[in-house]
Q: What sequence folds into this?
């Protein structure tokens, strides 16, 4: 279900932003880098979810046209 995945990806991205902010505030470069990495991972997962949704939409459209 894409809606749940969207929420999970948004939460992961927010957690990454928070981690990056803590790293910036404390001067912890490792934590800042981890936060950025977490955000990229969340964006990548979201792109996959979006692509899957698009494919399902096209398939549904093609199936509807056959009827």
A:
């Amino acid at each position: 279900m894409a809606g749940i995945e969207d929420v999970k990806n948004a939460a992961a991205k927010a957690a990454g932003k928070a981690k990056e902010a803590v790293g910036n505030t404390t001067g912890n470069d490792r934590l800042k880098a981890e936060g950025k990495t977490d955000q990229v991972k969340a964006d990548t997962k979201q792109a996959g979810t979006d692509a899957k949704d698009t494919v399902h939409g096209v398939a549904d459209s093609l199936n509807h046209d056959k009827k």
